[in-house]
Amino acid sequence: MNNNNANTKMLTKLMFSLLPVQILLAAVDSLDCFVSSYFASNFVGVTAMSAVGLYSPINLFVGALSLILAGGTSIICGKYLGRNEHEKLQNVFSLNLMVTFTVSAVLTIVFIVLGSFDLTGFLTSDMTVRPIFNSYLIGLGIGLLPNILTNQLPVFLSIENMNRRTLASSIIYVVSTVILNFLFVQVMHLEAFGLALASSVGNWIFFAVQIQYFLSGRSDLKVRLKKPDMSDAKEIVTTGLPGAASNVYQTLRGLIVNRLIEVFVGSIGISAFATADNLLRIFWAIPSGMLTVSRLLISVSIGEEDRQTLTDVMRVMFRRFVPLMGAVSAMIILFSRQLTMLFYQNTSDPVFMMTVWGLRILPLCMPLSIICMHFVCYAQASGKQFLIHILSLLDGVVCVTGFTAILISSLGIKSVYVANVLNGIVTTITIILYAWNRNRSFPRKMDELMVIPDDFGFAEDERLDLSISSIEEVVRISQTVQDFCLKKGIDERRSYLAGLSLEEMAGNVVEHGFTKDRKKHSVDVRVVHKDKDVILRIKDDCVPFDPNERRQMLDKDDPTKNVGIRMIYKIAQDVQYQNMLGLNVLTIRI
User: Fold this and answer.
1) Residues with Cβ < 8 Å from 98, sequence gap 6 or more?
2) I want to staple 245 with a disulfide (CB 3.0 to 4.6 A). Which of 169, 336, 385, 392 is the partner?
């Protein structure tokens, strides 16, 4: 069975299998904001909700630093995975932890000093809100270290195929945060400090569950106390910085928008916007989870120079992710009043309808944001610096602050919500115009919209992409591989061996891997003619199976066992196996 459609189906299946855990992980911080907002509005007061809103731009700045490290690390790890360079992967792991610890420690000191000495006047001039905000800032500083570290570890847990631990730690965090908020806010009456302290203690619990796996000795990646090789440090920052630029811009945007709301609407407007924004953050976890799944696949595809998979990731985004987010957005709009009543029960209070309108308008920008986020990620991985910066600048600060400033005198708080929707429209048009300008024609295909260079990957006449779903197809495709090699000028012996290798290894997957469970599986096969060599890449989504480990376990005195595996290692120049994101990837060079 050929080829592109089957590859897209396998990729779609993989992306959606990874998606739930990544959404839940992204929702952890969002759920924390939701819980904090709920307890602030119901048990502390609207003023405390203003303090939560004032922290939002600072949270974006912390998120930017975290994203620089996590995003850069994820992309570099993806490339090393694609090249099967495990030792470099280990070094990036150690380096990430060391740098993250240093950055987190410095930020912790800054937060505590700002709050303790009332140095937060640049954020608000409201003397009623500021003392509350100071105590809130101190409480959050206690948990900054684990907060940033827990944003790094899921990248490595995914590489280790330990998404269940991420899932478990996320659930534990959510439950513990609810309990701690009840204890510190409702029982002990610690007010804003209690809100922040609950988040901080929860972050320490979250971190402890995640890091325990890497300290247990069961992980391939080890926590090493010796100083790592610093050669990758610059690349992590320079690779992650463009993707985090949007967060930096959004920090500036948040400060400007908060000031506009304070001047034209008042603190009540900040409370309403913060409530709507914090509630929607739970749903923003869906696009964030989608991006996390796509980011690693995009970087792996670039590392492998796999043009087909690279474009397929974007196809899944447009065909599956965007419509799904559209449906979620419609549900939010439909239940906007009911959602607002979780925070404000008095429907006659002005803050109530201000929040309702936020939940009616803001969700419209979410499907469009998925497009922008994915193209920024792709541009980041492929080095398209101009596209990164123009999208980040528009999305991060220019559009929202500009449209808000123009509309706020006439629309009030609604101007902020409308500005976010207009921002999504502008960034989407910018992506199309960028491709149109670079291609000198309107983009009609995915690789044209992505502006993928013509020399990226292997030319169509130098590669063969196939998919196998049954044992009956194995022999036929083996002959197809042999014929392809002969047409490329490969001698008859190596052409025959290439077909035989494919038949043995793919047949082994179909006979044994397909029968391990009741799921529907397929084998994705790529044959490449490169530098007079034949490279076979066999990829499947069955249970992990390392042929080299099996070969080493075989009884050397019984040559009748696993003849196929023995034969492949004798005739091939090189055989490499890795289990990547739940996929078995076997590369054979003949």
Assistant:
1) 227, 228
2) 392
Q: Under a CB-based contact definition with an 8 Å cutoff, are residues 543 and 513 in contact?
A: yes
What is the average pLDDT across 259-274? 89
Whether the pLDDT of residue 158 is over 80: the answer is: no
Task: Tell me 189's DSSP state.
Answer: -
Residues 585 and 590: their CA atoms lie apart, in Å, by 16
Spatial separation of the C-alpha atoms in residues 141 and 15, rounded to whole Å: 35
pLDDT tens digits for 60-82? 788 888 888 887 887 787 777 76
Q: What is the C-alpha to C-alpha distance for residues 335 and 432, in angstroms, rounded to an integer?
A: 33
Residue with tokens 């939701």: 34
Compute how many other C-beta atoms are within 10 angstroms of the C-beta atom of residue 347. Answer: 11
| Alpha carbon separation from 157 to 54, 86, 87, 204, 229 (Å, rounded) | 33, 15, 17, 18, 22
Cβ density class 518-546: b for 16+ within 10 Å, e for less = eeebbbbbbbbbeeeebbbbbbbbbeebe
Return all residues near 130 (Cβ < 8 A) that are at least 6 apart: 118, 120, 121, 124
| Ramachandran angles phi, psi of 217, nearest 5° | 90, -5
Q: Report which of residues 461 and 585 the model is more confident about.
A: 585
Specify the pLDDT at position 533: 81
What average pLDDT does this structure show over 203-213?
90
Binned at pLDDT 50, 70 and 90, residue 555 comes out as very low
The single-letter DSSP state of residue 362 is G
Segments in 305-398 forming alpha helices (H): 307-316, 322-334, 336-340, 350-361, 366-382, 385-393
463: which strand partners?
Answer: 528
CA diameter of the chain: 86
Q: Which of 551, 575, 521, 394 is nearest to 6 (CA)?
A: 521
Instruction: Return the domain boundaries, the chain.
Output: 4-447, 462-589
CB count within 10 Å of CB 261 equals 26
Six token digits for residue 192: 């804003």
Q: In this structure, which long-range contacts are made by residues 567-570, counting pairs with CB atoms below 8 Å and at least 24 apart in sequence?
A: 567/500, 567/504, 568/501, 568/504, 568/505
The candidate with the shortest Cα–Cα distance to 81, out of 6, 156, 165, is 156
H or E element: which one contains 586? Answer: strand 583-589
Write the CA distances from 492 to 263, 482, 524, integer angstroms.
79, 8, 24
CATH classification for the domain delimited by 462-589, as one of 3.40.50.2300, 1.20.1270.50, 3.40.50.10190, 3.30.565.10: 3.30.565.10
pLDDT, mean of residues 402-430? 96
Q: What is the predicted pLDDT for the residue at 107?
A: 92
pLDDT value for 426: 97
pLDDT in tens, 485-510: 888 888 888 888 888 888 888 888 88
In order of 73, 152, 225, 233, 376, the CA distances from 95 in angstroms are 9, 11, 11, 7, 25
